[in-house]
UniProtKB/TrEMBL annotation, chain A:
Chain's gene name: PPP2R5A
One GO cellular component, as annotated: cytosol
Polar residues biased stretches: 39-48, 485-511
Pfam families found in the cross-reference section: B56
Composition-biased stretches (Basic residues): 28-38
Gene Ontology terms, MF aspect: protein phosphatase activator activity
Species per Swiss-Prot/TrEMBL record: Electrophorus electricus
Domain of life: Eukaryota
Name assigned to this protein: Serine/threonine protein phosphatase 2A regulatory subunit
GO process terms (BP): signal transduction
Family: Belongs to the phosphatase 2A regulatory subunit B56 family.
Region annotation (Disordered) ranges: 27-48, 474-511
UniProtKB/TrEMBL annotation, chain B:
Annotated protein name in UniProt: TOG domain-containing protein
Recorded GO CC terms: cytosol; nucleus; protein phosphatase type 2A complex
Domain Phosphatase 2A Regulatory Subunit A helical per the UniProt entry, residue ranges: 97-278
Keyword Repeat: yes
GO molecular function, one term: protein phosphatase regulator activity
HEAT repeat feature ranges: 20-58, 174-212, 213-251, 252-290, 291-328, 334-372, 373-411, 412-450, 490-528, 529-567, 568-597
Residues covered by the Phosphatase PP2A regulatory subunit A/Splicing factor 3B subunit 1-like HEAT repeat domain: 284-365
Amino acid sequence: MPWSYLPAVCIKMSAISATEKVDGFTRKSMRKAQKQRKSQGSSQFRTQSSLVELSPLPHLKDTPSTEQQVLFVQKLQQCCVLFDFLDSVTDLKSKEVKRATLNELVDYVSTNRGVLVDSAYPDIIHMISTNLFRTLPPSENPDFDPEEDEPSLEAAWPHIQLVYEFLLRFLENPDFQPSTAKRYIDQKFVLQLLDLFDSEDPRERDFLKTILHRIYGKFLGLRAFIRKQINNIFLRFIYETEHFNGVAELLEILGSIINGFALPLKAEHKQFLMKVLIPMHTTRGLALFHAQLAYCVVQFLEKDSTLTEPVVRGLLKFWPKTCSQKEVMFLGEIEEILDIIEPTQFKKIQEPLFKQISKCVASPHFQVAERSLYFWNNEYILSLIEENIDKILPLMFGSLYRISKEHWNQTIVALVYNVLKTLMEMNGKLFDELTASYKADRQREKKKEQEREDLWEKLEALKLQDVSNSRGLQIAQNNNNNNNSLTNAEEPNTSAAITDSVNSQTFNCAK
Amino acid sequence: CFGTSEVLMAGADGDDSLYPIAVLIDELRNEDVQLRLNSIKKLSTIALALGVERTRTELLPFLTDTIYDEDEVLLALAEQLGNFTMLVGGPEYVHCLLPPLESLATVEETVVRDKAVESLRKISHEHSPVDLEVHFEPLVKRLASGDWFTSRTSACGLFSVCYPRVSSTVKAEIRQHFRNLCSDDTPMVRRAAASKLGEFAKVLELDYVKSDIISLFTALASDEQDSVRLLAVEACVSIATLLPQEDLETLVMPTLRQAAEDKSWRVRYMVADKFSELQKAVGPEITKNDLVPAFQNLLKDCEAEVRAAAANKVKEFCENLPEDSRETIIMTHILPCVKELVSDTNQHVKSALASVIMGLSTILGKDNTIEHLLPLFLAQLKDECPEVRLNIISNLDCVNEVIGIRQLSQSLLPAIVELAEDAKWRVRLAIIEYMPLLAGQLGVEFFDEKLNSLCMAWLVDHVYAIREAATCNLTKLVEKFGAEWAQNTIVPKVLGMANDPNYLHRMTTLFCINALSEACGQEITTKHMLPVVLKMSNDQVANVRFNVAKSLQKIGPVLDSNSLQTEVKPVLEKLAADQDIDVKYFAQEAISVLALA
């Protein structure tokens, strides 16, 4: 991202301790402990300092009901004044007045009936927009690791929290009229609300989650728009920035949205599954939202089991190659899928799937091996394996047999023995055959490997690459008229002399 | 179907050399990704062996079908195809490469798509104008109206390469497609379009720049997403460069002013980051009237990110101010902001400023520097953040030219000493790197008096990286001050460490000798260094002994053949019979490299 700092060398002044002097490193945990929980002001561009001090208005409940509406609007307007919370000494009195007023407003819309008259809507939405919609500040910590680091908290939370609370109560008020509100809670409003999901403050994201869910429920006209915008946020997250704090919350909302999809599923929804949710597995921060993501995927499969094959193949395509932690998550998700898989669907994916599981079982990382071996503790998966043992056993046998002898971790070896035993009981005859042919198979594989290596060496010797970079291009041109240049090597070539010499070098030099 | 078997049979028929090609083709279908990848990287070899005809009729269709492969394979494929023109028979057949590249330009993974677009751009130049209209432009149109956003994003990068070489009707179509993408419903596509806006503007006729591009620019610059708006700032530079001066005020400036005050800090950051380019593009008059106040605001921005980006540009901005009013503008408008930034609350801002502030001295001249800048330099030299101090020290050369370094040396020394002893080894490492520069600026006398002892102290640092850097530093100092200086000041101290009780320090002696022998020359090496090395061959620590062997190998070329034969050879032979296996190994290696066997 262009706006993040250059990776700052960890330079920070501090008292020089003897241990630090020796290696210069401080343990991360120690540095963490020193850090205070930070709070951060929202990036309100050049906030105007409130010149006038707020003075408390009379209480709503002490006002005759005929005048309440006017006072309500006045209070809403009063709450549109913004304060700088990073400066903890200024405007103390006004801040307190606003806080009390907000509290009163929350109370007013949640306990009273008949207070939401049509004319109040614009003022309500204006107050909410003014307070909530702001550009989020740059992250204090450019290498923010949501798993390890404390998030920066919103400094203005004492007010913002109450505004969120107010919005929620407003939406949940029995008198709330979506038909009136839709003029104000429109696409732009939703878009700005969605932007706020990037907030680093988990309290804020939690409110947003509930609020967006309510809006999705009450405004039918906004549903497609909300889904599309979430789609865009995710695509940007996956393919452009890999950074968005509210992915887990948005997925959680989607989980319940998917649950409500009508059957048969629309093409749009399937596309979302295959082109957004599945690629989302490749992102770096997967651990932060994997549970919600897997839930969404499984929801889709419960709706429409024919999606199983593309989903599993998608996961196999994006199977982690270097990150064991992610591999464990993938295995967890596969188990969730297997838990609900239909036997006919299972048959379609068993081969590629068990090829992968066979690799996982043999992983030198014991957590990966262990997680995949746990599949054999799952009754339903066992029954599926048993049904298809003639297909699955040959795929699994090599890895299991090998690691039963080689794995460094004793727990894994013990688990493997159990699995081998289970498989043997399922089809003893096949098991014996595989045991008998194991050595020969390995030798064949080794030989093939060796042949391949030899060939690559031979190819190096041909140095075809060099030829193609320089003189090779000329042969390509000169051979234009030859229907089959492969024969050139053997037949005397009548075209340009250079073709001849290069060809002999190209095709005949390896003995 | 692709004729692997045929090739394989050719191999079986006894033409041995074809067999590897058959294997490569076969491996393109192997289930192991790594093997497919290896093979696809040799694609040009395969194509060459197949000849142009079969490459066109068999290999390319086969590759077009494999597009659902792993992204890594696709990336390699996309890259290779960009260099395939000759392999399919030269420019007249280059359009054969379009189908596979078109599919690659629509895949999900950004790196693959970008590579495919890069290759398409490359081969677009190899198309004749006719082919461009018949084959290439329709592809761009298909991509531009694709269903999924990926193909539309890819299209954005292709308009500018075909526009200049097509007929005016096709040009009009291309402009229309670009317009559509600029107002696409998907922000990803609008971002792609915004990022190519400047490039596209450059190939358009000026009238269309004024009519089409400006309205697109204005629209993108007020997009609802800040990620789109900030890309419009980049385009602003190119657009402003293209327009005649008299149009800038009406066509560009309203948008630029708005961007500099955007409510999103990301957009303001972009303005700050592109400030020098913008300044050049809009010219001196607008700079004076508009950009100076805008720059002041950015230097005072409420977000540290923006201030840091602006602080980075202070020197360039001042340098490019029109000469007639440069000094006045700096003194009255910029310098007050700079003064505030010196005591900014954010260390990144201070550090960005420290990396450029010294450059102002050449612009302001001696008197102003002493009166106004020097206090700022001194303040930054005492900053609590080491990065700030380091940045000041690393730019001493600019100030040296203007006022001489002596003005600073009194404050410099404590700052250097403090950094030299910083608890973080990375800080120590950074200051070591500036030592040769400092030595050059401060002169040999000052160096000997104040800094030499620091340089020697680093040789016995606790951290290996520091000792290594200190060794390298000595070499650079000798290159600056000469062999005689080395003999008098450095060599004795280095050689003295040969008797240190700590074997790590004894090894440092050897490392220093390795580094210094060449710079010091034959005489010093033979007379002073060699005896010490030879003596160390009796060290009780094996690591020292095998480093003796390595050192001898290293300094061998500097020695004359007599010392090699009479002194080095016997010692190496002795080491070659050492009981430690590593000592033996390195001694034997030295013997063979020095040809003493």
